[in-house]
Amino acid sequence: MLLRVIWTGKTKDARLRELQLDYEKRLSHFTRCEIVEIRERAGSGSKTGIDKDSKSISDRLSNGAVTVLLDPEGSNWSSPELAAQIQRWENQGTKEVAFIIGGPHGVSPELAARVQQRWSLSRLTLTHEMARVILLEQLYRAYTIIHGLPYQK
Predict the structure, then answer these.
(1) Predicted confidence (pLDDT) per residue in 21-79, tens digit
(2) CA quadruple 111, 134, 25, 81: dihedral, nearest 10
């Protein structure tokens, strides 16, 4: 199964970029993982900017992929629940799951309506750069849970 993680903007903090690369490498032991960075448009806080960013994200979504939007209003999954969800997708023969992190001003209503699931990483407010690291870490943690490895302890 391919995990495609799509986000808007580059990770500017070198330390967080290193962590992203580390978790991406760790994930590669269990599954294919692809990071897609969408160039953040000028004026991304305006409706037009949000629409353009969302269109760029939509253009990167494969037909048939399960889509999960990271959304503060989404469901709260525990790490074991995420692991169980990943296992269900794998057992169902899901070829790709796309995790979407929109820009700082969110995504368009059209993109939000298109996704199958909404997941909240935390009730806390996180920077987008931190959310990226936490997402990748949680995906890695889910695979260690699935395979019974000691990381999750």
Answers:
(1) 999 999 999 999 999 999 877 665 677 888 889 999 999 999 999 999 999 999 999 99
(2) -80
- Cα dist. 103→29, 42, 108 in Å? 29, 12, 10
User: What is the pTM assigned to this prediction?
Assistant: 0.93
Which residue, chain included where needed, has tokens 């989404």?
74
**Mapping DSSP to helix (H, G, I), strand (E, B) and coil, where does residue 102 land?**
coil
The number of angstroms, rounded, from the C-alpha of 97 to the middle of its chain's C-alpha atoms is 9
Nearest CA-CA partner of 53 in 117, 114, 104 = 104
Two structure tokens written together for 18: 């290193």
E strand or H helix that includes residue 83:
helix 79-91
Contact, 119 vs 71, CB < 8 A? yes
* Helices and strands (H and E) in the chain: how many: 5, 5
Q: What is the pLDDT of residues 73-121, one digit of tens each?
A: 999 999 999 999 999 999 999 999 999 999 888 899 999 999 999 999 9
Its CATH class, for the domain covering 2-147, is alpha beta
CA dist., res. 42 & res. 80, Å (int): 39
